[in-house]
Amino acid sequence: MIPSSPVSALSLGPLTIHFYALCILAGMGVAIWWATKRWEKRGGNGDALFDIVFVAIIAGIIGSRVWHVLTSPEPFFGPGGDPISALYIWQGGLAIYGGVAGGAIGAFVMARVKKVSFTALADTLAPTIMLAQVIGRFGNWFNQELYGPPLDAWWAWDVTCVTNGQTIPGCEPGTYHPTFLYEQLWNLAGVALLLFLARRFDLAGGRVFWSYVAIYSTGRAWIDAIRSEPVLMVGPLRIHTLVAIVMALVGIAMFVHLTSRRIRRGGEVVAADGSFELAAQTEGGGPDTDHVEKSGTPPSAADGPAPPGS
């Protein structure tokens, strides 16, 4: 049985360090490190990538919090709600689709500023985002949140509803499906699958990013369907479940479209400068410099996957 964390924060005098925030920051740090390695392999500049990612992270945090508040409004605007607590991101509540949408918009703008290919950027970041999600989900364990229905099994999560010596409001002690763990395991497998597919089938031109969207959303749809925290409902479906289903279909459709476009063009964007490859690429993302077309009119930095709508 999975135990609960007895603490979710550490107080150092007037400073309170929330473990949820530390998990998010750790995920970001690992993602930036890995993304830099992947970007430089494409011929990109690591400093430029940091500037892009810095803006994307800020935009992503804003987007993820806005989406969470809009889809789970009761704690903030319902009876007895506290609107100011919508700003307390350290207490949990960052919705991934809002984060990806906000981050994609920030990255798109910065890609134009830095004059790099947004397509290559999206493919570079895709698996690193998925790994960051795995690390960030540990924050849900510390906060004792995101669990499913009651479960009597060896892998059940024993939720005590007590953290830092205080009872968590609205929490019912018991053993539950650890949906945060289900998502972590799905995403870990997703990272491995994404890297395998990219290497095996020479994915580029935005197809790595949309593969990520399809893989993540497929898992998120069934995992979210069994989560028990209150959320906006659309008919019989939770809003996040519905969005995940839609985004899984969009991801598949975009993958098929971009594959057809590659066949028509005879190549696809691979390098950070927007150059596209006419033959096979190496390591499912890094350009093979012997086969990269250095034409004077490479695809535009804007010629890439559109950010998810939610």
Q: What topology emerges from the helices and strands here?
A:
Elements: E1 9-12, E2 15-18, H1 19-41, H2 46-71, H3 74-77, H4 96-114, H5 118-136, H6 138-143, E3 157-159, E4 162-163, E5 166-167, E6 174-176, H7 179-200, H8 207-225, E7 233-234, E8 237-238, H9 239-265, E9 268-269, E10 276-277, E11 292-293
Antiparallel strand pairs: 1-2, 3-6, 4-5, 7-8, 9-10, 10-11
Can you give me a brief rundown of this structure?
By secondary structure, this protein is mostly helical. The protein is 53% helix and 9% strand.
Commentary on this structure:
By secondary structure, the chain is mainly alpha-helical. Helix content is 53%, strand content 9%. It has helices at residues 19-41, 46-71, 74-77, 96-114, 118-136, 138-143, 179-200, 207-225, 239-265, and strands at residues 9-12, 15-18, 157-159, 162-163, 166-167, 174-176, 233-234, 237-238, 268-269, 276-277, 292-293. Strands 9-10-11 form a three-stranded antiparallel β-sheet. Strand 9 (268-269) and strand 10 (276-277) form a beta hairpin. The longest helix has 27 residues, at 239-265.
